């Protein structure tokens, strides 16, 4: 039941926040904060309760499960389930949810109730994606994320918000529709070969099918996940959406929505089509390494701070893409840790850029400069999170990226070496940000107020999480391990199935 | 008592955290107490550990302290663990003790700077990272320290961030060293993939048993680590950042860019010496890099007018000696030179700071002069440091360490007379550029008035370091002077000793004598060129050839020019060209094609009956044709 509550709290909280805004605008802020906070506490409590279990048991698939029949005629279930991977991602979701509420506290000043409604419903969609074990439900949640997010960009965004929102919707919807086709195809193929109508993850894992058909169905899934991730060359929606979205939108986009793409690859694409994914792997791995280098090159070229940070996501998610398709324990753990670390570090960078824009009313590096003296706390925080972004050991991103590189090196030396250069090119854009905005002479004579208590609270929480992930990632790695082992086993298992009894 | 090991990095780290978070709220005195005190306590613990290590050497002459498992994925299990043996003990001692003296000096030197607490915070973080680097029990933790010191170096070079030139120097240092770090990171990947661990001692053991001498794996790994080492230690071809790094405050130059961080590469190679023994060509490359760097940098030092840049090039050159020693397997000698160089170069930089401050931020040695009378203490200390650097025979530390390197370069089976001759020529150069500076700054007529004299916090470190620059050499006397060499004995538990060549006709005494001759020639030449017959030099630099040679050496042999053309500009140009994302043009292309199609179609909907009738007719004809002909 607790899994349902995770979603219900957000869905109900969103509606309440909307209603409450007619009475008091601060109330909707507090309701959202309490809602996400409550979910976060529940998730952490769940983690603590299950910690011994995630540590020890390798063979139970799920820590929590909820399986209700929904539309029995079509074999559709309301099936939620949680393992270590989903659990950590849930905690990330609620953590960044709170951050998103807090960073909008003063930034959003119109249609406050509706804003929080959209925020909460997007989060509910994300939670659904991380929990759904029925592909119909998964698609439902996948689409649920989309519309409220689109509203967040279109209604509270910056100058070119309509363009960005449309671009976002068209790109993700295009990928999403291909996935829908793939899901339905998989459903019918499963029926053809087994005589059972089912959208259940566990059933579909066992689907015997022709390799050529499987390959095409896999491509359908890949389209949706690659656009969301985003993998090069499906990324152009991202810089626009991130740049134009309000701060909370950028935090959720970068921190969570991109992760749903990575999660989809991990949970569905490779386990459902292990042999095909293996055959296909050189393509996404190459796209990943191109993304790493191309993303950092373009980040370096930008002068808009938000756009710059947006392109770094293309770069970092390249590591995730590589990690997923290399598909060994080191690389998978690396990909999973990168998802969390990138969520926090990039989320924090967006929070800080948002805070800066709220003060200076510009994001243009050329208009800024020498801010360290006037906003030392903001500058120091920016430096810290940028350093995590450039892969400084001791901070979260390093752990993830190094594990990916390590897992990749043995079988794909060239890819691993090229990706390591991505860590070097990350230096260029980070130094550009620090020099351009915070060091150098203050030629425009900026005097700005420094971070306030609310912002300091967010920054400190995020910084501590990154440090913790950087020097003692073991609890998180231990939580991931059984889930990732299961995924690895599932893929080996179904690969064996295909090899043993391939249906013509 | 070795259990105090973890406190050595902890105190400076705590100092950093406190100063970074609360520093702006503290009084200057409190900041100074925390910033200097943390490193002082750390030095104290380092001395305790040293005393304990010497009194009761641990089993196997090494001590490991495991703090926690960093991460554990499959067979990859790096720990946060410290490893103490003779090598890391010497390094830790030098870092914390010299670090403490420099912190003490900074407390006064930076006293009026608005970024006082920020400065001490960065310096504290540096000491913590450097200690982690040398104490790390595995290469990943070493890499953490390695990147940490690189970061601090960047932050401190660009400390006075208002001046864009400082920012440029800082970014250059960070990026150039990170080029090396990238090679090193790939080296770690290679080592782990080949040997299944990154724990240094285990790694060396496995390398020795699994990789034969000359195996390509060992060569690749050693070569990649060398890439990291030349970056950090400012050796060819990544030496370009160090002279520019002098943009930072002078205590930074003393601590990071002379005494400690730039020797991180030396430490790395010494630490992984097994790999280099297994890869003789790479080890040869280390020697060649060292030899080439020491000559190139020595010649560049001769042409600089900025006091700090002379010292910077001198540092590059002296680290070149260490690389040369490593390259011929004179491991112990390299670390000995690290030790003496840390004392004397820190001393010279601190004195440079005093001189520059006293002369109203004047860096140009040609505008100084006659300071011998105005600043006697500074003069005598500088003379001691300079003599030690140049290697004044018998009484200075630099003589013993450099003499040992040169002798072993000549004697080692991996060395040879060619490298030996280069090293001896290096002594001549060192002596020449050192005394050039001494004559220009302290002799002749006074050109700039002296503003201030340093206080106790600045004088005390200078005195201690002067003393160490003299007596530091006596811990390792050559055999002919009584043969007491506790240093070599001590490091003998870590390093194999040098294997002498067969049929060696050179004697240690002869080598030392020739070194002495080179020293004297350099000294006399400096006296002739820069005191007696200054016209000679002027005539040379004004001739066409002399001018271009001078310019070439002055600009560091054109490396900046080359890298700017070959890497920086193309990258920036490509980045600017692709700023608006070429990939996006494809998608916007689709969008515009759609818009175009829409305009074409909508233009047919224009309300003119003629158009509609014509369309109707054309359509009918088309369909009729289809029916008839298909």
Point out poorly predicted stretches of chain A: 497-504
Contiguous helical run count of chain A: 19
The radius of gyration computed from the alpha-carbon positions of chain A, rounded to a whole number of angstroms, is 22 Å
- What's the assembly state of these chains? heterodimer
Rg of chain B, Å, rounded: 30 Å
Q: Per DSSP, what share of the residues of chain B sits in E-state strands of 2 or more residues?
A: under 5%
Which pair of chains forms the biggest interface, and how many residues does each contribute?
Answer: A-B, 51 and 48 residues
Overall 3D form of chain B: globular
Write the H/E string of chain A, N to C: HHEEHHHHHHHHHHHHHHHHH
Q: What's the count of strands of chain B?
A: 2
Strand adjacency order, main sheet of chain B: 1-2
Describe, in plain words, how this protein is organized in 3D.
The complex is a heterodimer of chains A (504) and B (630). Chain A is an all-alpha fold and 504 residues long. Chain A is 76% helix and 3% strand. Chain A has a two-stranded antiparallel sheet. Residues 497-504 of chain A have low confidence and may be disordered. Chain B is an all-alpha fold and 630 residues long. Helices cover 73% and strands 2% of the residues of chain B. Chain B has 27 helices and two strands. In chain B, strands 1-2 form a two-stranded antiparallel sheet. In chain B, helix 6 (164-195) packs antiparallel against helix 8 (216-232), helix 13 packs across helix 24 (544-554) and helix 18 (397-411) runs antiparallel to helix 19 (417-442). The radius of gyration of chain B is 30 Å and the shape is globular. Classes of the chains: A mainly alpha (504), B mainly alpha (630).
């Amino acid at each position: 039941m607790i899994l349902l509550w995770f979603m219900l709290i957000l869905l109900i909280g969103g509606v309440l926040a909307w209603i409450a805004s007619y009475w008091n605008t601060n109330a909707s802020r507090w309701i959202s904060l309490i809602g996400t906070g409550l979910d976060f506490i529940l998730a952490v409590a769940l983690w603590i309760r299950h910690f011994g279990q995630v540590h020890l048991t390798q063979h139970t698939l799920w820590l929590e499960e909820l399986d209700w029949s929904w539309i029995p005629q079509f074999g559709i279930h309301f099936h939620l389930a949680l393992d270590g991977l989903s659990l950590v991602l849930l905690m990330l979701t609620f953590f960044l949810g709170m951050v998103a509420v807090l960073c909008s506290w003063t930034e959003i000043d119109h249609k406050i109730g509706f804003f929080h409604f959209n925020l909460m419903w997007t989060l509910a969609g994300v939670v659904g994606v991380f929990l759904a074990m029925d592909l119909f439900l998964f698609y439902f949640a996948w689409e649920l994320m989309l519309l409220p997010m689109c509203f967040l960009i279109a209604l509270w965004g910056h100058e070119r918000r309509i363009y960005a929102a449309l671009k976002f919707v068209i790109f993700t919807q295009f990928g999403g529709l291909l996935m829908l086709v793939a899901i339905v195809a998989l459903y019918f193929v499963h029926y053809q070969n087994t005589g059972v109508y089912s959208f259940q993850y566990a059933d579909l894992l066992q689907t015997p099918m022709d390799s050529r058909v499987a390959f095409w169905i896999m491509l359908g899934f890949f389209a949706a996940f690659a656009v969301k991730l985003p993998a090069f060359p499906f990324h152009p929606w991202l810089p626009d959406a991130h740049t134009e979205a309000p701060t909370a939108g950028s935090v959720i986009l970068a921190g969570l929505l991109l992760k749903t793409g990575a999660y989809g690859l991990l949970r569905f694409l490779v386990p459902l089509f292990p042999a095909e994914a293996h055959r296909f792997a050189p393509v996404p791995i190459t796209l990943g390494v191109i993304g790493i280098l191309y993303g950092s090159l373009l980040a370096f070229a930008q002068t808009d701070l938000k756009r710059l940070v947006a392109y770094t996501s293309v770069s970092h998610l390249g590591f995730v893409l590589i990690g997923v398709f290399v598909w060994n324990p080191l690389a998978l753990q690396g990909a999973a840790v990168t998802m969390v670390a990138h969520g926090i570090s990039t989320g924090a960078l967006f929070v800080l850029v948002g805070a800066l824009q709220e003060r200076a009313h510009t994001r243009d590096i050329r208009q800024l400069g020498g801010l360290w003296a006037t906003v030392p706390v903001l500058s120091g925080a920016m430096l810290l999170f940028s350093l995590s972004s450039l892969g400084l050991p001791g901070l979260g991103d390093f752990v993830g990226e190094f594990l990916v590189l390590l897992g990749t090196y043995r079988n794909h030396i060239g890819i691993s070496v090229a990706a390591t250069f991505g860590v070097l090119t990350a230096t260029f854009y980070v130094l550009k940000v620090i020099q351009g905005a915070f060091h150098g002479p203050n030629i425009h004579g900026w005097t700005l107020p420094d971070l306030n208590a609310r912002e300091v609270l967010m920054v400190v929480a995020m910084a501590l999480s990154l440090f913790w992930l950087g020097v003692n990632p073991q609890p998180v790695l231990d939580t991931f391990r059984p889930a990732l082992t299961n995924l690895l086993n599932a893929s080996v298992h179904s690969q064996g199935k295909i090899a043993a009894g391939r249906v013509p | 008592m070795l259990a105090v090991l973890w406190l050595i990095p902890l105190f400076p780290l705590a100092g950093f955290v406190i100063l970074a978070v609360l520093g702006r709220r503290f009084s200057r005195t409190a900041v100074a107490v925390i910033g200097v005190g943390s490193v002082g306590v750390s030095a104290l613990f380092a001395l305790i550990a040293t005393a304990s290590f010497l009194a009761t050497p641990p089993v196997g002459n090494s001590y490991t302290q495991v703090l926690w498992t960093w991460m554990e994925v499959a067979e990859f299990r790096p720990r946060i663990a410290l490893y103490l043996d003779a090598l890391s003990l010497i390094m830790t001692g030098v870092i914390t003790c010299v670090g403490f003296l420099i912190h003490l000096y900074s407390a006064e030197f930076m006293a009026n700077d608005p970024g006082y607490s920020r400065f001490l915070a960065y310096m504290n973080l540096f000491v913590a990272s450097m200690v982690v680097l040398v104490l790390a029990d595995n290469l990943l933790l070493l890499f953490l320290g390695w990147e940490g010191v690189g970061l601090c170096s960047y932050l401190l070079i660009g400390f006075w961030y208002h001046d864009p030139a400082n920012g440029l120097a800082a970014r250059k240092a960070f990026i150039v060293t990170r080029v090396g770090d990238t090679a090193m990171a790939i080296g770690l990947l290679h080592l782990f993939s080949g040997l299944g661990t990154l724990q240094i001692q285990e790694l060396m053991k496995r390398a020795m048993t699994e990789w034969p001498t000359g195996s390509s794996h060992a060569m690749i790994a050693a070569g990649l680590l060398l890439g990291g080492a030349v970056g950090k230690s400012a050796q060819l071809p990544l030496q370009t950042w160090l002279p520019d790094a002098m943009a930072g405050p002078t205590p930074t130059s003393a601590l990071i860019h002379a005494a400690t961080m730039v020797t991180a590469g030396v430490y790395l190679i010494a630490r992984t010496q097994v790999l280099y023994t297994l890869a003789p060509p790479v080890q040869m490359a280390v020697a060649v890099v060292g030899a080439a760097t020491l000559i190139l940098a020595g010649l560049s030092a001769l042409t600089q007018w900025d006091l700090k840049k002379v010292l910077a090039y001198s540092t590059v050159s002296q680290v070149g000696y260490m690389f040369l020693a490593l390259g011929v397997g004179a491991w112990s000698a390299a670390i000995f030179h690290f030790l003496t160089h840390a004392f004397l170069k820190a001393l010279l930089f601190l004195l440079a700071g005093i001189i520059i401050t006293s002369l109203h931020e004047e860096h140009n040695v040609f505008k100084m002069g006659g300071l011998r009378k105005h600043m006697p203490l500074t003069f005598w200390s500088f003379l001691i440091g300079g003599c030690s650097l140049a290697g004044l025979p018998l009484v200075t530390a630099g003589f013993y360490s450099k003499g040992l390197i040169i002798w072993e370069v000549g004697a080692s089976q991996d060395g040879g007379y060619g490298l030996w001759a280069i090293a001896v020529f290096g002594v001549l150069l060192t002596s020449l550029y050192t005394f050039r500076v001494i004559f220009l700054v302290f002799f002749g007529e006074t050109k700039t008035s002296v503003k201030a004299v340093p206080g106790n916090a600045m004088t005390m470190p200078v005195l201690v370091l002067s003393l160490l620059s003299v007596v530091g050499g006596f811990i390792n006397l050559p055999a002919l002077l009584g043969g007491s060499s506790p240093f070599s004995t001590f490091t003998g538990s870590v390093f194999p000793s040098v294997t002498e060549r067969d049929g060696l006709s050179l004697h240690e005494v002869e080598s030392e004598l020739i070194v002495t001759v080179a020293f004297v020639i350099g000294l006399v030449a400096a006296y002739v060129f820069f005191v007696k017959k200054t016209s000679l030099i002027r005539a040379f630099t004004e001739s066409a050839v002399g001018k271009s040679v001078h310019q070439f050496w002055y600009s560091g042999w054109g490396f900046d020019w080359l890298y700017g053309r070959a890497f920086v500009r193309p990258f920036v140009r490509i980045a600017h060209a692709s700023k608006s994302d070429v990939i996006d043009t494809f998608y916007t292309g689709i969008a515009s094609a759609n818009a175009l199609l829409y305009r074409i179609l909508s233009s047919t909907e224009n309300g003119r009956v003629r158009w509609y009738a014509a369309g109707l007719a054309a359509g009918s004809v088309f369909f009729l044709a289809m029916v008839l002909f298909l």
